[in-house]
Amino acid sequence: MNQIRNSIIKLADTADAILLRIESHPSGNSLRRAGRNHGRAEHKLLWFNQLYLRIKATPNQPAGSALAVRGLARIMIAMILKPANAKELSRGLAHAFALGQKLEEADLRALNRVVEYTPEDMTVTVEAGITLAALQAALAQGGQWLPVDPPNPDALTVEALLAFNASGPRRFGYGTVRDYVIGLKVVLADGRTVKSGARVVKNVAGYDLAKLFIGSQRSLGVVAEVIFKLRPLSEVEATLGRECGSLDEAGPLIEAVLDSELAPVVLDLHNCRSPAMLVLSFAGTDEEVQWQVAKARELGFHEPSNLDYEQSFWREEGPPNRVSVLPSKTTEVIRRLGDVRFVARAGNGVIYYRGGPVPSRNDAPVKLTRRLKDAFDPKRILPDLVS
Prior knowledge:
The chain is α+β, with helices and mostly antiparallel strands. Helix content is about 40%, strand content about 20%.
């Protein structure tokens, strides 16, 4: 880190010296005016590039001065795009790609339309800047929903939902958003727009390119539009909990639920209150839910509960740590984490926790990741995939 900081300081000092040296240059005043007048990152980058070309054409400059300015530009300036529509997003990325400039952020909040929604088809087409909460509210009017429930839906855009394959407690019963995407429009690093899938739910022809972008953390392209298949809203949902005096007690109970006839949509273990609690939720018709509640009581789930622990856990400052294990290893791994606050998707083996050891980062398939980057983002202007 010190080497990087020192390099940046040296580049900045070199650039300052160069700026002083071009005071007498005929183009100096116009270049400085351009720098002052354009606050957007892409205009600043153009200003640096103009300066680079002017310095190259000016005799008696310090060795490496022009390259120092170009390097400083790439370090100090990262583009922040705020497109009003998909075409502007495409133009902005094409511009960044042409300059080889890193994209810091793509703010898609203006792309927030429900493009097409026909409840009879049980599909919806939306722009990717719409928040999940706004989408769910629109779908509820048709008695339907997109069956994902990640944290902070009021702020989470559909683009971010897909970029990180975000999920919540109902993941056990409904799966993740990857299971509901049937079509994507993605703007690639060079500004080209590609489409995958269609509004037909049974569209299975060809390679499913959409799955490649979901969970890619914006490393391969920026999602601009999505087609989802939907589910009807459940008639009833009931939540029960059972306190577990220890992890030794929780493990066999989780196995008992998994081996039973029960089909919960939520199977979570958490210690957001003491002692730890195993939580089950059931959804469906009133008759279906009542039958499952009766079966759950046979396993000792008598206490009415809710999912408030989920909101409480995610409201805490900073992102939690996350590990994924075999569901059968969930309690064993939690025990090894020590005295931590956790919420575990016990049926999926996903554990979120605060405090304790930082999880080791799994090695991504380096060769495959590099090949994908070479194909979709050869100039590396988009973020790298974090394993």
